[in-house]
Structure formats: structure tokens, C-alpha cells
Structure to design on (446 residues):
């Protein structure tokens, strides 16, 4: 999750010369000077004696990035180009492969591919570890360095090698880069259920969500029984958008709170009156690729009992990163706070536990033609409650072995390759919402 702030007041500046450091900061103890002098000595020695010539800019940027990345996996230095790329990304358009990655134990791990991007179409999955780019190992690269190598002109190809699972064989994918235009909200109806998928939280998300809900309500009217909010494989994004999305379904109460190093710097975000879904039941789908802003939304709706959370354990990123521009250079992404759900839970490393744990499953259609029914049996009694019912014609298949029950087909399972992949988790969510609607209708006597 990224919340962009501008640095206010004078920033702490460090000027390094030949073993000399001048510090403009609140703390200027002798120990600080000693440590900075040590850094200056190392810096000067590298400049003078390293086997290859390295620019001062390279050394300083690497030193800054090393300082920040040593803090946690999400703090880092953004040079001018990366900072510009990040700004474009939060607006909903950027260039590259279309994956969200993180650093885990020195390896580049895929948090999730973005829908309808080159990486998604190539078959990259959450949890994949990227091991090589164009045949070169990524081990030893920083997260920013690896991301920079994956970016390039639209239409250019890159070979990405991934490892899937503990002992999985390497998988090489040839992926053509593209300009990634993120449509962060997609929607449709599943019969009498509204389905809304949010793929990321950028500046367009809240506008897209409002359009989705309004369109579904106009299309279905009083027949609408509820909403599925799909946050699976959503890696997060902007904090203010996560707050807005949560507020869309809440009428009051706290959405999320952040707590920084100093207790007085904590912030609370509260819902405003008005539930755009008008109290209809909501099911939120999450999985291991749901991170950060996705977990804020799921946690808020879960704590307020406004939605049923379904799926599998989420990613577990419970920290806030502030983007602090560095005039004349780039910016620093610094972890400045942890966030907490309305009940005070921190999801850091733990994630959101679903109310109903449902794993994705492969469901295959059974060829009904291969199964026989009672009406297929020779001499079956007719149904005496329906007038005009005639005995069904005898089947050409042999009778069941014992004469009174149909035999199980030997190979009745078949997959219709012309149908879109069956989404078991979504099917369970839709069934649950219809069940809730039926229960409510019976309870009220309607």
C-alpha cells in the first residue's frame, strides 16, 4: 500500500567528502559523527581502489538503497525514473509485464499477476519465484533492480524463468512487454447476484466501484440479492482508495487505524453515513494474493460483520509506506506505520482469516447422457401425480446388475473445453448469497 506524502520542513541531509560528514539533523551526537566518518572512509576507499570505476551517483544511490532495504522488504530508494514509473502506476497505467512482486529471503516472489496482462496470459501465478531474466540469475539483485530489468519498451520480449513450489522444475516463459493499462474494477451479474472484481487500488478504483454498483442496481432492480466483492490476487495500492471502498459498504464506524513510531502520529479513518449497497448481503473473496489495501477492506467489513469473508488466508502485509520525494533526485519509500483493523487486529505476517475457508477446486461436468434414471428402467412405474405421464421408452443400455438400481458409468466425467473455467469459490459465494436471501425472505414472511 502506498500513501504519497510530500516532505514538510527541512529534511535531514548528509554531505560526504573525503572522510568528512556534515549532518543537518536533530541528532548530532559524537557517535553519529563517528559512524558517518566510517561511511565516508569506506566511500572514498571504494572510489579510489575498486577494480572498476564507479560513479559517485551509483555509490550514493546504492548506499541509500542498502540502508532502506535493510529495514524491511517494503522500504527502498526510488531513483528519478522509478519514481516517475511509480507515479504513473498509481494513476492506473504503466509499462512492463503486469505483475506485483516482493522480496522474500533474497528471492523475487510474485504476489500476483494483474488480470489481462502479458504475465497473466503467460500463466504466471501467485507464489512463483522468479529465478532468471533473459538467462541471467536475479540472485543478488535488489527488488528495484529486478523490476527495472523486467521493464522495457512495449513489444520487446523477455524470457522469465520461474520456480513453482518447493521442488518444482524451472518454467521458462517468453513474455512480450506491453503498456499495462489497469482497469481496476470489472463487474457483471451472476443471475440475481452482482459480481464486482477489484484488481488493484489506484486513483480510478472508487469511481469504477460506484459505476459498477449503480449499473448492477439499475439492471437488476428489486431482484438483486447481494454482491460478491472479489479481491483475490489484488496486491493492494493506495490507502485512500482502500478506505473509500470500505466506506462504500459501511454506514458508520472505524475503517482502519494507523500507528507510527510516535503514538501521537496515529490516524483513524471512519465511515461516513450511507451504504451504497443498501444493506444487501456481501461476500468478499480473498486468497494468498490478496495483500495490503485488500486486507484493509476485508478486515473492516469482517470486523463490522458487514460481509462474509470467503476463500483462503490472505498475504499478511500490515504496514504503510510513505513516498517522500527527494527534490532533484527521486524519492524514498519508507515504512512509517502499521495499520490495524477496527477491532485492533494487526494482520502483519498473519493475514486475514476467512470466515469460510474455501479452496479453489477443479470442477468437471458429468456427462448426464452416460447416467440412467428411474424412467430409463424397463417397466418403471409411471408418476401418478402428473396427468398424461407415460412410461419412458426403454433404454438401449443393459439393465443395472441387480435389476433395481442404475449402474455407475465407467467413465462419465467430461470437460467441455468450450466453456470458461469454472470458478468454484465464486460459485460458493453466489450460492451463499442466494441462501441468505432465501432465509431472510422466509424470516420476514415474504
Amino acid at each position: 500500500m502506498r500513501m504519497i506524502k510530500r516532505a514538510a520542513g527541512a529534511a535531514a541531509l548528509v554531505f560526504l567528502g573525503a572522510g568528512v560528514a556534515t549532518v543537518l539533523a536533530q541528532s548530532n551526537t559524537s557517535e553519529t559523527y563517528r559512524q558517518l566518518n566510517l561511511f565516508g572512509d569506506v566511500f572514498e576507499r571504494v572510489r579510489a581502489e575498486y577494480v572498476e570505476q564507479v560513479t559517485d551517483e551509483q555509490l550514493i544511490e546504492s548506499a541509500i538503497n542498502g540502508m532502506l532495504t535493510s529495514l524491511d522488504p517494503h522500504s527502498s530508494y526510488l531513483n528519478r525514473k522509478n519514481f516517475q514509473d511509480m507515479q504513473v502506476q498509481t494513476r492506473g497505467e504503466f509499462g512492463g509485464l503486469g505483475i506485483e512482486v516482493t522480496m522474500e529471503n533474497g528471492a523475487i516472489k510474485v504476489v500476483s499477476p494483474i488480470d489481462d496482462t502479458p504475465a497473466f496470459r503467460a500463466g504466471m501465478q501467485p507464489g512463483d519465484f522468479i529465478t532468471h531474466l533473459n538467462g541471467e540469475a536475479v540472485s543478488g539483485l535488489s527488488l528495484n533492480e529486478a523490476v527495472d530489468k523486467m521493464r522495457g519498451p512495449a513489444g520487446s520480449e523477455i524470457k522469465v524463468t520461474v520456480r513453482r513450489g518447493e521442488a518444482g522444475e524451472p518454467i521458462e516463459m517468453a513474455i512480450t512487454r506491453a503498456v499495462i493499462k489497469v482497469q481496476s474494477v470489472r463487474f457483471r451479474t451472476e443471475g440475481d447476484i452482482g459480481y464486482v472484481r477489484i484488481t488493484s487500488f489506484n486513483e480510478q478504483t472508487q469511481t469504477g466501484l460506484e459505476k459498477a454498483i449503480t449499473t448492477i442496481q439499475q439492471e437488476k432492480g428489486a431482484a438483486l440479492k447481494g454482491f460478491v466483492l472479489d479481491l483475490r490476487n489484488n496486491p493492494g495500492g493506495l490507502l485512500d482508495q482502500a478506505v473509500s471502498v470500505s466506506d462504500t459498504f459501511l454506514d458508520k464506524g472505524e475503517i482502519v487505524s494507523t500507528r507510527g513510531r510516535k503514538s501521537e502520529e496515529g490516524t483513524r479513518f471512519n465511515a461516513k453515513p450511507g451504504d451504497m449497497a443498501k444493506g444487501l448481503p456481501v461476500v468478499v473473496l480473498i486468497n494468498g494474493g490478496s495483500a495490503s489495501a485488500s486486507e484493509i477492506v476485508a478486515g473492516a467489513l469482517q470486523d463490522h460483520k458487514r460481509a462474509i469473508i470467503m476463500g483462503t488466508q490472505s498475504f499478511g502485509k500490515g504496514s504503510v509506506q510513505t513516498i517522500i520525494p527527494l527534490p532533484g533526485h527521486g524519492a524514498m519509500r519508507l515504512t512509517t506505520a502499521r495499520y490495524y483493523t477496527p477491532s485492533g487486529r494487526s494482520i502483519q505476517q498473519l493475514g486475514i482469516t476467512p470466515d469460510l475457508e474455501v479452496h479453489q477446486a477443479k470442477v468437471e461436468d458429468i456427462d448426464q447422457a452416460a447416467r440412467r434414471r428411474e424412467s430409463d428402467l424397463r417397466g418403471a412405474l409411471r408418476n401418478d401425480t402428473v396427468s398424461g405421464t407415460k412410461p419412458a421408452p426403454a433404454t438401449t443400455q443393459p439393465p443395472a446388475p441387480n435389476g433395481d438400481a442404475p449402474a455407475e458409468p465407467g467413465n462419465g466425467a467430461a470437460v467441455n473445453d468450450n466453456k470458461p473455467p469454472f470458478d468454484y469459490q465464486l460459485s460458493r459465494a453466489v450460492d451463499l448469497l442466494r441462501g441468505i436471501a432465501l432465509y431472510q425472505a422466509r424470516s420476514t414472511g415474504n
In short: The longest helix spans residues 424-444.
